Amino acid sequence: MYTFLLVIHVIVCISLIVSVLMQSSKGGGLGGAFGGAGGSDTLFGTEGASKFLKKVTQVLGVSFMVITILLAVTSGPQNVTTRESGVSEEVQKEIDKKGQTQQPEESALPEGFEQLPEPEGQTSE
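Now predict its structure.
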């Protein structure tokens, strides 16, 4: 399902880019490069092309937003975390199984630095 939505999403993205670039602007837009430079012999007529491209752009824009939300929902959570520490369940189980947690060593400080004493009235966990 995710792969199918991703393929449709890429197609909608490319179509949306093309539809935006095809719309005529003050400078004529990219539509003029394909023969739609305001002549009466255009495919949709002079007014029909702008209405059609606006409608196509609206539909593609809404489709882009809906598919983006669907992709976010179907991808699901990547890493389930527990507790306040943000440690994943598997890692926490492994830590609990070994019965030890890694405490920072006092010698881990760079040379010339010293460990600060604990503030009075507070205990470290």
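The chain has one domain: 1-33+42-96.
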